[in-house]
Amino acid sequence: MAAKLMTKSQLxxxxxxxxxLSKKAANDVLDELAAVAVAQTKxxxxxxxxxxxxxxxxxxxxxxxxNPATGEAIKIxxxxxxKFRVAKAAKDSIVPPKAKK
Length: 101
Fold this sequence. Notes:
Elements: H1 8-19, H2 23-44, E1 46-49, E2 53-60, E3 63-66, E4 73-76, E5 79-86, H3 88-94
Antiparallel strand pairs: 1-2, 2-5, 3-4
Helix pairs in contact: 1-2
């Protein structure tokens, strides 16, 4: 990856310019979007950002694992994790699907 990743302030500046907002207003929009995404994922188990993807809360079962240093079997407890599923439209526009023969 040769290109630099866009920072939050660069994204806010881009949105401000695109929609005629102040940088502070654009930053507030980004903060509120993040807050709503977190709140909805906690409450409903999922949050969809149309055209980009979906935040999903998932439960992992307890399982047996191995300590790589000693090889000793250890019990890994169950836990809740957050996953992000990329929307098909976004995935296909970033990495076009291969043509079928």
